[in-house]
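Project standup — Tuesday

K.O.: blocked on the structure for the chain from last sprint. Re-posting the sequence here as requested.
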Amino acid sequence: MNPIQDINLQLAPLREKLFTHKLYGSIKTMEHVQIFMEHHVFAVWDFMSLLKSLQLDLTCVQLPWRPVGTANTRFLINEIVCGEESDLNLEGKRSSHFEMYLAAMQAVQANTSVITSFVDLIGKSEFDFNQLELQLPKAVFPFVNNTLTTAFTAPTHIKAGVFTFGREDLIPGMFIAMVKELNQQFQGKFDQFIYYLERHIEVDGSHHSNLAIEMTASLCGEDSVKWNEVKIAAEMALNHRIKLWDKIHQTIMSN
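H.V.: unblocked you, prediction finished:
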């Protein structure tokens, strides 16, 4: 069994737990979708932060330019960044997946002020980990904190491993079908959200996933210690995702 097969086998129970999470079955109204999106958008945002940390490690983004790492690894990360940061939205215009998500939130009248205020705030001052817990909603802080800690402090192979194996949004067909049913009731208000979900599965779940596996494999090579560190970090990321799903489910059920 190769390291990738071993990690996939070890992580299978956690992925199954996410795929069958009771959160999906509890989302039945527009208000429930709004609650879901108002939390999940932070995971969409910090995914980009993890991705950009890999681009910083694996390519040259400083002046004067110099070649960094291997051309193959540079190609892999740059192609993923290009797709995530400047994809085509529902109208055929260039947009990051994060901006697509914000547009989808606005279409269903979900509250975007918390996430946009947070992003504006960190754009105006130097990022301070000590202030993060004060700036984020309580439910999302542990998840985002784990992602950003990885992005800021972990070795490159661990970042790549978490990106590859620990950041899968396992979205079951039942959830998309439910959103499509609501879309019929609300005259197309969920069109952009459905596009995001289907685009996410199409691009992130196939092409980008394969590129990410190749990238992680090139960084870990034959080093069993690195592969084990990747597995541990990916397990932690998936467990944080499960806890985030738990908290969103609790919020929906108590609302």
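K.O.: great, moving the ticket to review. The radius of gyration is 18 Å. The mean pLDDT is 93.
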